[in-house]
Amino acid sequence: MSDSRPRPAVGLVAARAVRQKLRAVASLGTFWPAVARGGRLLARGRVREFARKLFNEAATVRAAGEAPVREGPPLVLAGHALRPGGYDHVVLAVLDGLLSAGVNVVRDPLAVLNLDLIPLDRRPGEHPRPGGLPRLAACPPHLLSRFRPDRRTAAFTMWETDTLPPAAVRALNRCGLVVVPSRWGAECFRANGVAVPIEVVPLGYDPDIFRRTERESEGVCTFGTAGALDAGGLRKNVPRVADLFRRAFPAEADVRLRVKVTPSSPMVETHGDPRIEVVRRSLPPDELAGWYRSLTVFVNGSFGEGFGLHLLEAMACGVPLISTAFGGVGSLFDERVGYAVPYRLVEARNAVYAGRWADPDDGAVMAALRRVYADREEAGRLGALAAERAAGFTWAATARGLADALARHGFLPAGMAGPAGVV
Q: Which CATH number describes the domain made up of 221-391?
């Protein structure tokens, strides 16, 4: 049967592609860098490349009109998904999970999606008047106001310190529901004045990709750490982990540190140490899982995590953590499945964050590094326990929990609701 649905005209496709590009660079705070890059391309006469980058959504905009027609209760999804990792990854996982749960997910007009990341059969629908439909906004609380929240909006969000920005609290209180991934987050939001209903729904991982495999004992003890260092560099503390590694192992040849950062991150200083390997690119999920499995232990030096997706994925691959249990991390990690290190609460010094977060104890981190180096069998046992713990956190469970919470609060039909989890 032929598809009789109208296709957008070429001019409309081009106009929408330009709008999406402007929204994308605005949402990432990269407007002026994008202008500079475009100017350089034009100055060098690379007009075709400039046009391709400017209209790089045009082809996928056309494809959006070919998304499957779906039955089921409609729900608008607001959230940007432009690149792997961070909230973008959460948006994509929530989209896939809700579709699998039978929800007719519709794209919010303010949301910017890189449709190259979404298979055609998993793309959200388009609705001529989405404003009257219930909506789920997946974004950081300090950016929620960009989606103009109201009582028909449920916010799926998290924070990394004990203090929310006052403007974020006001935006959250305009919503009908707030969903966070940890009980610590729920208590933090309440203490900061969020008065609307709050539900706890943990994030997850894909068990078909991130899974433990049996490994032969290696002669080299391999530590790993990772993070985006452009916006969250201070918070992630990746350079500090590299420094502590070098201090813990000043001369040992049978150790290495593998560092993975995003392409837009600044270079991590290795001080010429050949034992430190830096990957500065986005890895496809299968390759990322292999990177985790190459590690003896994952070292998390972060000041704070609203949940900790990197940590969960590492645990699912049978890799124990060296980490504090502060914030959302405590919902999935403790000393029974890894090496918990003490910390002290310090004032956050960052353009985004205020309040307090956790400063890991340097001596304890180095002691844990040396402990792993001295007893790799213990690390293997803890890794197996970490994988068992991680099995309770999957994206399928996240989707079920979200559907339940949304149904309990009237965003989806009541028949989809499960047991109450409101805080």
A: 3.40.50.2000
